[in-house]
Specification:
- The chain is of the alpha/beta class.
- It has 18 helices and 17 strands.
- It has a 9-stranded mixed sheet, with helices on both faces.
- Helix 7 packs across helix 8.
- The longest helix has 20 residues.
- It starts with a helix and ends with a helix.
- The relative contact order is 0.14.
Length: 584
């Protein structure tokens, strides 16, 4: 089945209605609680209203921008200092009159007002998700035109929501997953609740973000109207229905994700298969229990990926098979990965004019350490540099194309592991993502059953190493998995809610139980050590297999964990992409 914009728009309200009627999520967990009341009930007891006030606009006359700051978007906010949003609108989209206070304006939508190809009713609504490491996105507290100018000049409506995150929990409140994406969904619902008084098309809501932000907009884009989120949305008084009681949707039209650090449920395994198996220092040094752990995680990942049933564009079933050397470095999935790496290098050769200079970073900011620069006069010089430790790239000068022979050479040369074994769900709960899934008020927690299964199967072997501690055993994982959050949900529920493949892959119970965004643009720096190459590749494949036609995917050579682009700058490219996919 092919999914397009009309499919999503038509199906979103229906999915929302189904989800509200169900009152249950894609997987039934014994003893879990159901909803905590509707938004209308919460509104009756709250000082906060879902109504957007069209009489409270401020106006930047110099730049012709109407804006409102600090509008709380739910009726029962857990964090009033975070759960508010700001709206920035090109002046052409509103008809306004000054109020008697001399500072604010009353405005109505002008459907004939235009900026470029957009009007007051067709303009896309773009929402930034700037949450590195799944941190909170603080709401705007003052007006700044410079931060939104490019988007408004392009005719976009810019909505900046505050979102809770890993670093915003307090002594009385946990903001751990899935609250960040829950807040994002609540903001989307608020916009739809107020669509009659706000300009722009709520059928063309576009999310964009990088790293943890790219991850959370990927999750939100895959999980539109998922019942997994309804108990959380009801708890904070999100707009579940419009003023007439009709179901509202939190599905979005499009997602721009740079380097999304996502699919955390399997990330420990893929990291060791993709990169860790070629490393032998630090936690992967011989003689340590973590070296054995690394090898076991790498062996477990092929079993997982083979269960996903992924297929390439030709319909070929992608699987890993055993190899003569290394861990499962053979099979159609392996060949596909090497093809992606080869394509990335050839795009670079096509895009780049030589001489080409690589500049490496110095020490951390403020260290006074400067970086180094190396210039390669010709393509041949650059290929020779890539092959310094051994030949893994061959180059055809006539065609200006290269061929990558395998994963090990690429990883050893360009993508070494920068994280320890247990890169995401740390064996001592010390990784950033353990905080993302904190339990209680702010206690880092284990969250990945696939990792627990590896530890459980090999625990007796690990215990023979002198650096092993029983604190690292599978019982610690089981303890964390059993704990419930303030809404009554256990770790399995929460982890599923933050796993985009839960909604995209038939290997999971959430498959086809959400409204998936129909336009995607994914860019990643292929050299980043922050996650495996397979993370973004699997998202792209799963989207295609799901039936999403418009997936613009590229891995960018010679770039790491950044807003990676083959050419041009990220903001300009994003704006151009939005223009190409909205209103269709």
């Amino acid at each position: 089945m092919e999914i397009n914009r009309r499919t999503v728009v038509r199906g979103a309200a229906a999915m929302a209605a189904i989800g509200m009627a169900e009152g249950a999520a894609g997987r039934a967990f014994a003893g879990t609680s159901s909803s905590n009341g509707s938004s209308s009930t919460a509104a009756a007891d709250s000082a906060y209203s879902l109504e957007f006030d069209p009489t409270a606009w401020s106006y930047d006359e110099a730049n012709d921008v109407y804006y409102q700051l600090g509008k709380v978007y739910v009726t029962n906010p857990a964090a009033t200092d975070i759960e508010s949003l700001s709206v920035y609108v090109p002046g052409a989209y509103l008809k306004a009159t000054a109020n008697s206070d001399g500072t604010t304006y009353t405005a109505t939508v002008d459907p004939r007002g235009t900026v470029g190809a957009y009007s007051g009713r067709t303009a896309p609504i773009v929402i930034p998700v700037n949450t590195p490491g799944y941190a909170a996105q603080k709401p705007a507290t003052s007006y700044s035109y410079s931060s939104v100018s490019q988007y408004l000049a392009a005719g976009h409506i810019y909505v900046w929501p505050g979102l809770r995150g890993r670093d915003s929990s307090t002594g009385t409140r946990s903001d751990a997953a899935p609250w960040g994406v829950t807040d994002l969904k609540a903001a989307v619902r608020f916009l739809r609740y107020n669509r009659s008084v706000l300009p722009g098309s709520t059928d063309d809501i576009v999310l964009f973000g990088m790293s943890g932000g790219g991850a959370q907009d990927t999750v939100a884009g895959a999980s539109g109207d998922s019942p997994l989120y309804h108990p959380y949305l009801r708890t904070i008084g999100a707009a579940m229905t419009d003023a007439k009681g009709r179901p509202l949707s939190d599905a979005v039209a499009a997602v721009m994700a740079w380097c999304p650090i996502t699919s955390l449920h399997e990330a420990n395994l893929s990291y060791e298969w993709n990169m860790g198996q070629f490393a032998s220092a630090g936690t992967r040094a011989s003689g340590t229990w973590t070296s054995a752990y690394s090898a076991d995680l790498a062996k477990a990942w092929p079993r997982y990926v083979n269960r996903l049933g992924l297929r390439d564009e030709q319909g070929r079933h992608l699987k890993l098979t055993e190899s003569g050397s290394g861990t499962y470095l053979a099979g159609s999935y392996y060949d596909h990965l090497v093809e992606v790496i080869t394509t990335s290098l050839n795009n670079f050769l096509s895009d780049t004019t030589f001489p080409y200079t690589i500049t490496t970073m110095g020490g951390p900011p403020g260290s006074g350490q400067s970086g180094t620069s190396t210039t390669y006069e010709t393509v041949d010089d650059y290929i020779a540099y890539l092959n310094t430790a051994g030949t893994w790239v061959t180059y055809d000068a006539t065609a200006n194309t290269a061929k990558v022979s395998g994963l090990e050479g690429f990883v050893t040369s360009q993508k070494t592991a920068s994280k320890p074994v247990g890169a995401f769900d740390g064996y001592s709960r010390g990784q950033t993502e353990n905080g993302v899934f904190a339990t209680g008020l702010d206690a880092p927690a284990h969250f990945a059953p696939l990792t627990r299964d590896v530890v459980r199967a090999n625990e007796s072997t690990y215990a023979t190493y002198s650096d092993w501690s029983s604190d690292y055993g599978s019982a610690a994982y089981d303890d964390d998995f059993a704990k419930r959050d303030s809404v009554g949900k256990d770790m399995a529920w929460r982890a599923d809610a933050y796993n985009p493949l839960y909604f995209l892959s038939p290997a999971f119970d959430g498959y086809r139980r959400s409204q998936v965004a129909c336009h995607w643009r994914i860019r990643t720096g292929i050299m980043q050590g922050d996650t495996a190459n397979t993370t973004e590749i699997n998202i792209q494949l799963a989207l295609r297999n799901y039936g999403i036609r418009d997936v613009d995917f590229a891995t960018v050579w010679a770039q790491g964990h950044t807003e990676a682009e083959r050419t041009g700058d990220p903001t300009t490219n994003f704006i151009s992409w939005v223009e190409s996919v909205t209103g269709k």
